[in-house]
Design a protein that fits this description.
- The structure holds two protein chains of two kinds.
- By secondary structure, chain A is an alpha+beta fold.
- Chain A folds into two domains: 5-77, Ubiquitin-like (UB roll); 87-157, DNA polymerase, domain 1, CATH 1.10.150.120.
- In chain A, 35% of the residues lie in helices and 15% in strands.
- Chain A has six helices and five strands.
- Chain A has a five-stranded mixed β-sheet with strand order 2-1-5-3-4.
- In chain A, strand 1 (5-11) and strand 2 form a beta hairpin.
- Chain B has three domains: 7-52, Uridine Diphospho-n-acetylenolpyruvylglucosamine Reductase, domain 2 (2-Layer Sandwich); 60-173, Uridine Diphospho-n-acetylenolpyruvylglucosamine Reductase, domain 3 (2-Layer Sandwich); 179-283, Enolase-like, domain 1.
- In chain B, 35% of the residues lie in helices and 26% in strands.
- A five-stranded antiparallel β-sheet of chain B has the order 4-5-10-6-7. Chain B has a four-stranded antiparallel β-sheet with strand order 11-12-13-14, with helices on both faces. A three-stranded parallel β-sheet of chain B has the order 1-3-2, covered by helices on one side.
- In chain B, a hairpin with a 2-residue loop joins strand 6 and strand 7.
- In chain B, helix 10 packs antiparallel against helix 11 and helix 11 runs antiparallel to helix 12 (264-283).
- The chains are: A alpha+beta, B alpha+beta.
């Protein structure tokens, strides 16, 4: 019954053309059709934040967004944002502060943190906690994640670089 | 779970959208931000045959001052409300409430109009629209009509909107220079649906509140105003005794309904707690 729709979007800098069912969520399109496994599926109701990706510069829930809605849009996942270096200091801070264990929440957590660091760079610890309350973590207990984000806010405010803990190959 | 299959169309103008809606009938759903709709479809609580994407409709966009009214288009997102200078200036209650709406990723897509049209009793914008004496602008096959927020919210998830109508905007009288407000939500986790919430708005001279609205949400089937308490407080110097009386009157006039989070008794108690905190805050 559902007609497939032709869409074009940019995903991590590459133009993508596809013909898909309207009901296909963006996150399923990214994971299953484009094999970008970075964003994860947790609740499919928008509560857990594991599916968070960026569309036209803003974080959104990939499970509450249809791929057809992304027609003509610029989509970025953790893969692209890692490659571009946009998340470098956050990723460094996450490693430094042990803010990642199983990694399931990390993609969404990093994307949420990146928007905070960009839009509300003067956030207090309480404001960071409120901001990431849309991303569930079952492993870390959250404090290390908040520590990592505060470290990045602090470093950026001072114009300092996060010192690498691990030298990347 | 994945949604059942549906068709998808994206009209370019309001007239086109209304025509599509008329043709598709009750089988169609409008999609704007989709933050409530898509969750509903994922759970298969609804299975429309077509989604009509209204995010192209210019008539529904933008925030502007029109005379003494602040007009907020239905497609304005929660984030846009949070960041808007016009709203900070003319409807500061909304700026205070915005960070309570779900989470940032949802706020980036979810819309003012979507929240109003859905009429969730726990939602912030229906309560704030009541608190601020908003007027809804609705488009339909016979043209535009206006209805006050007080008449717009009828019952649980039920507004005045007919299936063939689209909410275009809501207008709010711009805040007077002596307007004060208080907004608070009690929830287990920040961003969760409220257990109970309050929006208080008034004009304040000294410690006298006038034109006050006391609106509670997440306690009844719709947002609800404590009209007797409002009348009690209006025009009188606000002190601890008057506040205590207002709390009593409110607990008598509003009959809370239990929900998944709390019993009716808990909500009754919290209504009074919120009103007391709010009124004390306003005269602090």
């Amino acid at each position: 019954m559902s007609l497939k729709k032709k869409i074009t979007m940019t995903v991590n800098g590459l133009t993508v053309n596809a013909e898909i069912e309207p009901r296909r969520h963006l996150v399923d399109f990214l994971r299953e059709d484009l094999h970008l496994k970075g964003p994860h599926l947790g609740c499919e109701q928008g509560a857990c934040g594991a599916c968070t990706v960026k569309v036209d510069g803003k974080i959104i829930r990939g499970c509450l967004y249809l791929a057809v809605q992304a027609d003509g849009c610029v989509v970025e996942t953790i893969e692209g944002l890692t490659k571009s270096g946009a998340l470098a200091d956050l990723q460094e801070a996450f490693m430094r502060h042990n803010a990642m264990q199983c990694g399931f929440c990390s993609s969404g957590m990093l994307l949420a943190a990146a928007e905070l660091v960009e839009k509300q760079p003067k956030s207090t610890r309480e404001e960071v906690r409120e901001w990431i309350s849309g991303n569930y973590c079952r492993c870390t207990g959250y404090h290390s994640i908040v520590d990592a984000i505060m470290a990045v806010l602090d470093a950026r405010a001072k114009g300092e670089k996060m010192k690498p803990v691990v030298a990347l190959a | 779970m994945k949604a059942a299959a549906f068709d998808y169309a994206k009209p370019k103008a309001l007239s086109e959208a209304l025509a599509m809606l008329a043709e598709a009938g009750e089988d169609a759903q409008l999609i704007a931000g989709g933050q409530t709709l898509l969750a509903t479809l994922n759970l298969r609580l609804s299975e429309p045959s077509i989604l009509i994407d209204i995010t192209n409709l210019d008539e529904l966009k933008g925030i502007s001052v029109v005379g003494d009214q602040l007009r907020i288009g239905a497609l304005v997102t929660h984030t846009e409300i949070e960041d808007s200078k016009l709203i900070a200036q003319h409807a500061p209650l909304l700026k205070a409430a915005a960070p309570h709406v779900a989470h940032r990723a949802i706020r980036n897509l979810g819309t003012w109009g979507g929240s109003l049209a859905y009429g969730d009793p726990a939602a912030e914008w229906p309560a704030c629209s009541l608190a601020l004496n908003a007027t809804m602008l609705i488009g339909g096959p016979d043209g535009e009509r206006r209805i006050s927020a007080q008449d717009f919210f009828i019952d649980l998830y039920t507004t005045s909107l007919e299936p063939n109508e689209i909410l275009i905007a809501a207008e709010i009288p711009i805040a007077s220079s002596n307007q004060v407000f208080y907004f608070h939500e009690l929830a287990r986790r920040h961003g969760d649906y409220a257990i109970a919430g309050v929006a208080l708005v008034a004009n304040k001279t000294g410690n006298v509140l006038s034109d006050c609205t006391f609106t509670f949400f997440s306690v009844c089937a719709t947002p609800i105003m404590a009209k007797k308490a409002q009348a009690l407080v209006d025009g009188k110097p606000l002190n601890d005794e008057l506040i205590a009386n207002a709390v009593d009157v409110t607990r008598q006039e509003i009959e809370s309904i239990a929900d998944i989070t709390s019993s009716a008794e808990t909500k009754q108690h919290l209504i009074g707690v919120l009103l007391e905190r709010g009124l004390k805050h306003l005269i602090a």
